[in-house]
Amino acid sequence: MAEAADTTTPTPTDRTEALAGELFAGANAALTLFSVYLGTRLGLYDALAAAGAQTPGELADRTGTDERYVREWLEHQTVSKILTVDDERAAAGERRYSLPEAHEPVLVDRDSLYYLAPLARAGAGLVGPLDDIVDAYRTGEGVPFADYGANLHEGQAAMNRPAFLHLLGEAWLPSISDVHERLSAESPARVADIGCGHGWSSIGVARAYPNVRVDGYDLDEASIEAAKKNAEAYGVADRVSFEVRDASDPALEGKYDLVTAFECVHDMADPVGALTTMRRLANGEGTVVVMDERVGDEFTADAGEIEQFLYGCSVFHCLPVGRVGEHSAATGTVMRTETLRGYAEEAGFGTFEVLPIENEFWRFYRMEA
Ligand SMILES: C[S@@+](CC[C@H](N)C(=O)[O-])C[C@H]1O[C@@H](n2cnc3c(N)ncnc32)[C@H](O)[C@@H]1O
């Protein structure tokens, strides 16, 4: 008797079709992402948010762009469900396009925790030096952070900025009661912010705690220049300084109440060297807080979308930047808790704890001498 066909196990054909479908959907999503790049770089979303429904000609005039290109972009945005059109049957140049109010936090409001438009810029930056990345896969060399250029640096900084300006001082640090108390005290607490990038975390701490002084350190000159300008613009330059320094530099000195490292330890060629510096800067009494990606405890094929995204960042950027230098730890974006615990032990920390701060993307670690 013939066996009934197994309808639950996908046949090879189903799987082939599914993968083909996923790749097509991925290509569509990538093109939509890069259309968001155009929309933000050219000020198209800002103009739509400010002036409401517009024809291609009106939007082009308002943004100093070319009408025919803008028309194509508007039509693509509409079929991508980012914009809406008032009358799709109207002549192409007469249609009026709008940015739904609900999309403004994601695309226009730079302070919103939903502001994800910079992902487009960071995404373009991640693959900026693509030929060098291909070479690196053959040679095992690294690709310097600076070579990823302004798209990566500014996109990444803009992504983390809202959380640093709001959550860091309003929720994350206040939840560590003894640290919060010290930062709130009248006698000025000192904070060292290692791998500070464009300085938003340093500025966020300074704004939340009006007495503290923050010294931000980063290896990347362009980032430090940007950080100085940001501190000026936010009126905290008298209490926040920035300096180009390698976190692993044994000559980096100071005595700090709090030493932080936000989303950077996994990028460092020598994380143990950097953590050793941080332990030294905390000088036996201060606290070290590291924020890094909230990844699973171990590798699994069903790791979920966030870890899939983080592996994507790693194969193009974080692993290559972390392999610059002779004895790189080659960590990559997916730095698991046990990996960091191992680095902390090697750096001489006596205690290592995962802080009970809930966040979908970040995990916080506290270390002490
Ligand atoms: C992903 S960015 C994070 C920047 C910032 N903390 C943030 O969260 O927006 C990583 C930063 O680590 C810095 N970095 C990497 N290795 C470093 C080192 N050895 N010393 C100091 N900074 C380093 C890079 O220059 C870069 O600015």
Rg is 23 Å
Order of H and E elements: HHHHEEHHHHHEHEHEEHEHHEE
**Main β-sheet description:** 7 strands, mixed
Question: What gap, in angstroms, lies between the N and C termini?
Answer: 73 Å
Helix and strand content put the structural class at: alpha/beta
**Average pLDDT score:** 96
CATH top level class name of the largest domain = Alpha Beta
Strand order of the largest sheet: 5-4-3-6-7-9-8
Count of domain modules: 2
**What does the overall shape look like?**
globular
Oligomer: single chain
CATH fold name of the largest domain: Rossmann fold
Helix coverage percent of residues? 40-55%
Unreliable spans? none
Ligands present: S-adenosylmethionine
CATH architecture of the largest domain: 3-Layer(aba) Sandwich
Number of helices: 14
Structure report:
The chain is α/β, with parallel strands linked by helices. It has 2 domains: 12-107, Orthogonal Bundle (Arc Repressor Mutant, subunit A), CATH 1.10.10; 122-368, Rossmann fold (3-Layer(aba) Sandwich), CATH 3.40.50. The protein has a 7-stranded mixed β-sheet, sandwiched between helices. The chain has a two-stranded antiparallel ribbon with strand order 1-2. The model has no long low-confidence stretch (mean pLDDT 96). The termini are far apart. 48% of the residues lie in helices and 12% in strands. S-adenosylmethionine binds next to helix 8 and strand 4. The site of S-adenosylmethionine has 22 residues, from helix 8 and strand 4.
